[in-house]
Amino acid sequence: MNTRALPLYATIVIFLLACALAWTQFPNILSTRVFGNLLTDNAYLGIVAVGMTLVILSGGIDLSVGAVIAFSGVFIAVMLRDTGLHPLPVFALLLLLTGAFGAGMGFLIDRLAMPAFIVTLAGMFLARGAAYMLSIPSVPITHPFYQTLQGAYVLMPGKGRLTLIGVLMVAVVGLGMALAHRTRFGTSVYALGGGEQTARLMGVNQGRTTVLVYAFSGLMAGLSGIVFSVYTGSGYALAAVGTELTAIAAVVIGGTLLSGGAGYVFGTLVGVMTMGLIQTYLVFDGSLSSWWTKIVIGLLLLAFILLQKGLLRLSRGRLAGGGA
Amino acid sequence: MLLSIRSLTKVFPGTRALDDVDLDIAAGEVHALLGENGAGKSTLIKCLTGAYRRDAGTITLEGAAIDPRSTREAQELGIGTVYQEVNLLPNLTVAQNLMFGREPRRFGMIDPRATRVQARETLARYGLTIDVDRDLGSFSVAIQQIVAIARAVEISGKVLILDEPTASLDAAEVAMVFDVVRSLRDRGMGIVFVSHFLDQVFDLTDRVTILRNGRKIVTTPTKGLSRMTLVEHMLGRALDEATHAPAGAAASAPEPVLYFDGTGRAGAIAPFDLSIGAGEVVGLAGLLGSGRTETAELLFGVRPLQTGSARDTQGPLDLRSPRAAIRAGFGFAPEDRKTDGIVADLTIRENIILGLQARRGWARPMPRAQQNRLADDYIRRLDIRTSGREQPIGQLSGGNQQKAVLARWLAMNPRFLILDEPTRGIDVGAHAEILRLIAELTRQGMAVLIISSEIDEMVAVADRVIVLRDRAHVAELTGDQVSGDAIMRAIAEGDLPGGVAA
């Protein structure tokens, strides 16, 4: 058995256990309604977490995504209010912008050999500042196309609503899985996370891979911003504060090694769903403070970091035994 | 010839790392490349693999002149390299590592099934049937090494350079890797083999080329070559110019004060017994990679003991970490001064008081006046050439840095000092001073363990010499037996008549 996949199995088991626990107390929780809402409510988080998963797999981090989501919302709202363009070309323009923004950060990280932490921190302030420059108050989005987007859903048996943005999130996870596990780009990302020096010796194009991985994260942040604006129906410069950290938490709970090189995109989806489920449970309970979400997420994160350390030690111990 | 190197020269500021070196690698031979530190082995290899650009000379592969600019280019030309540290990714599967960059694809996506099948077929040709879907890191180093060889051969396929591929393998694993290398030789590849293990050189290789100080000394068939000649060539010292041992005062061995019983660590050094007396200088002699530094690191707690124990006349000693060893009164001046010995940006004063301050604990800083007095005292006593005690130590010459490191230990007044290559890279004047200093210390009753590649130096300072070969203590020379000849012979042959096998 591959020890690499253990954190993924652990994530899935924890999610199923959480489901079972919730079900014993609130049988209604296992319904297509709750499931549909889980997808819809966490769509923006899931999408941005897929981008974050690739960044973390490559051994980096992207702190700018929360600010980019806020910028995207304000950008769309202001563009729709002031230009009279149709949302679709605005979306395209936005994705181009955020993708290029990510690529720029990747370029700096690679060329200047700067820590991703610092470069994306600068990117975070830049994007948040740009959002404020466009508009300080929240801007409502009233375009009729938005109403179409918000109203687009398929009714599942049991009256659960499978919304467009929920489906989009699942599709993005699928795309992320294909990219990470079935392309040379994906293998290069894992290789970089495993060791830059070695990856270069094996023929990985480090510069190109780094630029692409941050461009992908920027693109996902832009897409997440679109989804978020559909979800909230407005653009606000103060939105999505701290989302980058929630996304990192989802990635780690999903079983990806924070230092890079090991993990699965699918695990991130499970991580996002687990976090969503905790929230739903608290809503069902009604008496508990919503801060319990944070506490449980904190405990889960801690548990996963310990699990990964333990696995690392286990595989090292076995290696030392084999090599001796 | 498969690969011909003619008058290869590489100059670094201050040194000629390679000077007019010729080397021929035939198809279907394993060619050993030997030499001590600084002989030019790694420079030669780096010129071949494109990591360095040569300054003069030609390299021809299958008759065509080549000039690789990068490792990748060298690989594409047909020169693959496998290093001591496996240069594959432990977090990818075996199949991914093997097929990286050449994965079979369908509709633009990697086809994992075909990748697996191809990886399995490739490894089968190397006699390896393993689960290619497991992470490479979960296999033993030997298997990783074979996968690395397989990858290098699949990509390059003409010349294979093995740079100490067996350094971290045990005997059974070495045999496994050698089987693979032999089968590659039979397939007509040219293989360059770099190793410090002489037994392996005799076991595996067809011809040997020895480098020393950037020059080629000789190329000769391995068969018929005696160990003695080999060691002579490597160390550059003919046997009969025996410098007589000034074994000095300690002709009769002093009563031991420290005992190490059966201390050893798998993969580093075979268990050995060692005892050392007050005022005694024990030398560790052997070729590079024979286990000298490993012995020192074991005694100082850098690598924990796996077997055996240490004790003094009072009772057992704790050597679990360098801190514990320092508490036991040990000192260690490591081989690589620049990275392990000094803190380059701190001043001479700060470097000298570092050890003493650490022992006092950081809560009780040493008064500045005392620091100054101590630093000035040692600068004068050891004759450290500096503009003053506040000069950053990184600006000093190698010899003066070494003296400052010695000063740090002397300030702590250890009873047992380990010196690993204390005179490497030091000019002649400073060299003599350091040797004089060692003699002075032992007169005051300090026990010293000294590691040196220079046999003459060893003969000059050591009362007793322990000879190491292939990670084991193989002989011990005492009193009159300590001579250049005897050490050389012991390095080559081990069981010296009259020498006590340790």
From TrEMBL, chain A:
Protein name, please? Sugar ABC transporter permease YjfF
Which chain regions cross the lipid bilayer? 6-24, 45-78, 90-109, 116-141, 161-180, 211-231, 237-257, 264-284, 290-307
PROSITE patterns xrefs: PROKAR_LIPOPROTEIN (PS51257)
The species this protein belongs to is Paracoccus gahaiensis
User: Could you tell me where this protein is found in the cell?
Assistant: Cell membrane
Family annotation (CDD domains): TM_PBP1_transp_AraH_like (cd06579)
| Record gene name | yjfF
Provide the membrane topology annotation: Multi-pass membrane protein
| Signal sequence annotation | none
Q: Which Pfam families match?
A: BPD_transp_2 (PF02653)
Main location class: membrane
InterPro entries, per database record: ABC_transp_permease (IPR001851)
The molecular function terms in GO held by this entry are:
transmembrane transporter activity
Keywords assigned: Cell membrane, Membrane, Transmembrane, Transmembrane helix
Query: Per its UniProt record, what NCBIfam families does this chain match?
Result: PRK11618.1
The terms describing its cellular component in GO are: plasma membrane
UniProtKB/TrEMBL annotation, chain B:
Under Gene3D superfamilies, the record lists: P-loop containing nucleotide triphosphate hydrolases
Q: GO molecular function: any one?
A: ATP binding
For whether the record's keyword set contains Transport, the answer is yes
Topological type in the membrane: Peripheral membrane protein
Among SMART domains, the record links this protein to: AAA
| Localization per Swiss-Prot or TrEMBL | Cell membrane
Show the SUPFAM superfamilies listed in the entry.
Answer: P-loop containing nucleoside triphosphate hydrolases (SSF52540)
Write out the entry's keywords from A to Z: ATP-binding, Cell membrane, Membrane, Nucleotide-binding, Repeat, Sugar transport, Translocase, Transport
Can you name a GO cellular component term? plasma membrane
From what superkingdom does this record's organism come?
Answer: Bacteria
Provide the ABC transporter domain boundaries: 3-238, 252-495
Please report the name of this protein according to its UniProt entry: Sugar ABC transporter ATP-binding protein
> Which organism was this protein described from?
Paracoccus gahaiensis
